[in-house]
Amino acid sequence: MNYSYSNQTMSASALTPLLIEIKTEIEARTGANFNSVLVNYYRDGQDSNGWHSDDEPELGRDPEIASLSLGAPRDFHLRHKFEKTHKHKMSLEHGSLLMMRGSTQSCWQHHIPKRANAEGRINLTFRTIVKQTV
């Protein structure tokens, strides 16, 4: 399966045995089922992402996304798309699992801001692709 976001199309690779093991554990803990994982590597605190929602058509309506953080802690910010004063901030620590469900993607945006002196971090976002892109 391919997955497109931010004007990029990512080609899928087979899940490794370790990723299958992690996926199985997350599915057991959350009750969700996933068929893909997006792996992001943040080299240091200068790597970040801007405000966005994971609302691509291939994820379907109200996708469930499980985000596993490995490595250095990073801040995670949420803001409501329509009520900009509604904001939340949390620290994603090593080993933390953030589950986004329901209207999270349709009503909220999130981002990982730059962070001085942060070390490397890997983020695994498990999701279900329901529609293939061309």
Task: List strands and helices in order, with pairings.
Layout: E1 2-5, E2 8-11, H1 17-30, E3 36-42, E4 49-52, E5 65-71, E6 74-80, E7 87-92, E8 97-100, H2 104-107, E9 108-112, E10 121-127
Antiparallel strand pairs: 1-2, 3-10, 4-9, 5-8, 5-10, 6-7, 6-9
Structure summarized in a few sentences:
Helices cover 13% and strands 41% of the residues.
| Number of domains as seen in the coordinates | 1
Largest sheet report: 4 strands, antiparallel
N/C terminus separation = 10 Å
Classify the oligomer. Answer: single chain
Strand content: 35-45%
Per DSSP, the total helix count is 2
Query: Strand pairing plus helix content: what structural class?
Result: mainly beta
SSE arrangement, N to C: EEHEEEEEEHEE
Number of distinct beta strands: 10
Helix content: 10-25%
Shape: globular
The parts where pLDDT drops under 50 for at least 5 residues are none
CATH level-4 homologous superfamily: Alpha-ketoglutarate-dependent dioxygenase AlkB-like
Strand order of the largest sheet: 3-10-5-8
Classify the fold: give the CATH topology.
Answer: Jelly Rolls
Query: Mean pLDDT score, rounded?
Result: 91
CATH architecture: Sandwich
Rounded Rg: 15 Å
- The CATH class turns out to be Mainly Beta
